[in-house]
Write a structure and sequence with these properties.
The chain is an alpha/beta fold. The chain is 42% helix and 17% strand. It contains nine helices and six strands. The protein binds iron/sulfur cluster.
């Protein structure tokens, strides 16, 4: 394992690895990451500032200078004050809580935006600076949810039925759309924990094997099956379709792909 170049894995790595091993190789081993559109960079910067704001607020530090600098942050913080998530009361609250867990020769890493602990219970809180996605199941199945709950049980030692994860979404949901709540609380259970463990172990064993073949035999990671519709479909398009020779065949398909901006996507990065 010493010769393998990639040992620390976050939820973002796992999400991409599970989506498509070749995509994982392209981004993290071949460094083929595409340039970010400037709008995306601005959003990321605002997201970082909001997390800093919430951290300072949790610590009882001054936040007014941050609010004064940005009407967007003011709006999100006002929304937080008007529609706060249902947070546990707890004697231990820590922002940006970091933890690690060794598994199958890798180190899993997580940073909880806020961790609240009270007696035998724990709540992980995550701030999102967009509108709550409609597809609850996609949020439950996202690796951020699965890994964070798994690590809270493994690293902090809580019983699985005493842990939950709370997502809070900073952008308001329109009055006429469901769900109305701008937060989502996901409970945990022993069966979810065992399922995550099995999936994780399988994924990591595969990753080790792909990385060994990549480093010793220059063999590429496998591509996802076309039938999985992860390369491109009417609702999504992988940025590596050209690199992978997986571009759509017909003009109609290409036209569909140019309209991706109108389709809501679950983003838990
Ligand atoms: S185009 Fe398809 S095979 Fe290639 S990285 Fe993207 S999802 Fe994977």
């Amino acid at each position: 394992m010493e010769s393998l170049p990639f040992l620390q894995l976050s939820q973002g790595h796992l999400q991409i690895l599970e989506t498509c091993p070749r995509k994982f190789q392209s981004i993290f081993l071949d460094n083929l990451t595409l340039p970010q559109p400037s709008l995306a960079s601005e959003k990321q910067e605002l997201g970082k500032q909001f997390h800093q704001l919430m951290q300072q607020q949790a610590l009882g530090l001054e936040i007014q200078p941050l609010l004064d600098d940005s009407p967007k942050l003011q709006g999100w913080f006002q929304h937080f004050q008007d529609s706060p998530p249902l947070l546990m009361t707890g004697e231990f609250r820590q922002s940006e809580y970091q933890c690690t867990l060794p598994l199958e020769g890798f180190t899993l890493t997580a940073v909880f935006d806020l961790l609240i602990q009270s007696g035998d219970r724990a709540q992980i809180v995550d701030w999102k600076t967009y509108r709550r996605p409609l597809r609850t199941q996609a949020i439950q199945q996202h690796w951020q949810t699965r890994l964070y709950l798994f690590m809270a049980a493994e690293v902090l030692g809580y019983a699985t039925d005493r842990i939950s994860m709370m997502y809070w979404f900073a952008e308001s949901t329109p009055e006429d759309s469901k769900p109305a709540q701008n937060w989502l609380s996901i409970p945990y259970s022993e069966s979810m924990h065992q399922q995550t463990r099995e999936t994780l172990e399988k994924l990591l064993v595969s990753l080790r094997s792909w990385m060994q073949d990549f480093t010793t035999k220059h063999q590429s990671f496998p591509q996802v099956a076309l039938s999985a519709q992860k390369c491109w479909s009417k609702t999504q398009c992988c940025p590596f379709v050209t690199h992978c020779h997986r571009t759509p065949d017909s003009a109609t398909d290409l036209e569909d792909l140019t309209n991706l901006g109108v389709i809501a996507e679950v983003s838990l990065d």
